[in-house]
Predict the structure.
Amino acid sequence: TRSSSKLSDGITGIFTKRKLDDAALEELEDLLITSDLGVSTAAKLTANLAKTRFNKDVDPIEVREALADDIAAILEPVAQPLAVDPARRPHVVLVVGVNGSGKTTTIGKLATDLTRKGHSVLLAAGDTFRAAAIDQLKIWGERTGCEVVAKAPGADSAGLAFEAIEKARATNKDLVLIDTAGRLHNKSDLMAELEKILRVIKKLDPEAPHDVLLVLDATTGQNAISQLGTFKELVSVTGLIVTKLDGTARGGVLLALAEKFKLPVHAIGVGEGAEDMRPFKARDFARSLMGLEN
Amino acid sequence: MFESLQERLGDVFDKLRRRGALSEEDVSAALREVRIALLEADVALPVVKDFVEGVREKAIGQEVLRSVTPGQMVIKIVNDHLVETLGSEHSALNLTTTPPTVIMMVGLQGSGKTTSCAKIAMRLTGKEKQKVLMASLDVRRPAAQEQLRVLGEQALVKTLNIVPGEQPVAIAKRALQSGALEGYDVVMLDTAGRLAIDEELMAEVAAVRDATKPHETLLVADAMTGQDAVNVASAFQEKLGITGIMLTRVDGDARGGAALSMRAVTGCPIKLLGSGEKLDALEDFHPDRIASRILGMGDVVSLVEKA
Ligand SMILES: Nc1nc2c(ncn2[C@@H]2O[C@H](COP(=O)(O)OP(=O)(O)OP(=O)(O)O)[C@@H](O)[C@H]2O)c(=O)[nH]1
Ligand SMILES: Nc1nc2c(ncn2[C@@H]2O[C@H](COP(=O)(O)OP(=O)(O)OP(=O)(O)O)[C@@H](O)[C@H]2O)c(=O)[nH]1
Ligand SMILES: [Mg+2]
Ligand SMILES: [Mg+2]
């Protein structure tokens, strides 16, 4: 892609016939910063590289490979697919995140993937606030052949989640995927509403929701740290899905998230279609960040 | 969460108790902190570099005012330069004298185009007594046209009737026709979200532009955007020619460095801010407020002036 090739061009430019000196390290750090790794993570990675290679003649590929390895090592522990427990009927997945990050679309993609794997899935139109959000999920229901539990706009979303789980029990579904309205993490009233959904779900099943997925837009910069911090604290996020990685943004902030929160990254979104979801692979992600072929 | 520039510079200048003019070393030490503060606020690196050089030129040799510390002096210079770069004067929507004015909303997926379209339409209808027609050209995202229709109802703004299967250019032309025939002052075109590197979709929106010749092409961008802001803004500018920027989700706690990045690479004014999900959450752009936000501090100017 464009940004990773720009990044790799940059690195090739830095290191052709050059020693890994302070200036080269600084330029390398800059390049990491332009992928949203953040100042401190970028500094840490370059410092680490300098430990073994400072003032040595290095070729650009070698430097990129080494950095990609370091990045992959950080991400490896968090690369975990969503695990569906067949003992739970239903396995309840609550999908949360800031406005427009890709929650509803991700539910469509998850439903596509899960039904293909033979699971029966019920969708719950828990975004009763945004205009036509219910219609949007219903279209995803048609596309994936999954039943959608919905109420009128403005209905109580906690009540809807409750009904959806009851319905899933009655119809013996494997999973319920609950959509929620987008909300900024600094809005306490909206976060309280999400906490209420959680409480109500627990009345039916104290173990539920079994997964609370935060959907994060890869274009997001350093604010992602504050997003995840608050959502994790208030609604016990259990894992992440990163969307829009088909664009020019590389989602480098994921590194800082992995180090700070150590939460699983289950999948990535690479387009708007039902099929456009991939497992998160640490090595692939790291190599693409460094502009290397997989 | 992040240290404000004030805290950062406080550390640097606490060590220097010197008065007089700012020396080159003082300024360099301070600018290292300014650089980090801007990067943590998500200002894009190339923009940070230019900005820091601009501040350096202004700062070296400046007399430190008797009443303030060198740190506060630098903050003031940084703040003033930031306000200037963000665009000092307010820049309103360009409404033509020969209606209908065409306003097209463009941007990445999920940035807030549809909501912002309805917000602007509601403001124009109410405060400015304009007769506004909105049309959704989004034939891709599920229920996108329905979304605009519902928002139109909420905002008491007319929307073009939906014809299933009709393609974006045809919808846009029909909107303009209705606009002219039915005496609308403003026709607003909401487009589907697209990636700037998606050649096909960028060509589609360019075709809409050619067919409708918008007076305003607003790039709608999320205040939480990171370093990618420069790629997005310059690509939309290059391929489409934008006339202004609308920054959404300023009701969040992002520092909003994307505003500076986008303004700097496109030269286009930031015209409006989205500050909530509701349709009245629309604000005019005030550079000083965004500047203090990027720097992570309250009212910078009064702070320095009081000192
Ligand atoms: N290019 C790209 N677009 C995506 C991806 N995922 C979602 N989108 C698009 O992003 C936009 C927003 O997606 P939604 O699923 O509606 O986002 P949401 O989080 O449900 O939004 P709200 O409910 O309004 O908060 C839509 O135009 C989607 O098609 C992705 O992986 N890549
Ligand atoms: N908090 C907040 N939310 C906003 C703002 N502007 C838009 N939103 C929300 O962001 C989400 C996406 O908004 P849309 O207007 O659907 O975005 P879009 O750009 O039209 O999306 P696509 O058409 O899918 O590309 C919705 O949940 C909106 O309510 C804002 O200024 N603040
Ligand atoms: Mg949604
Ligand atoms: Mg839209």
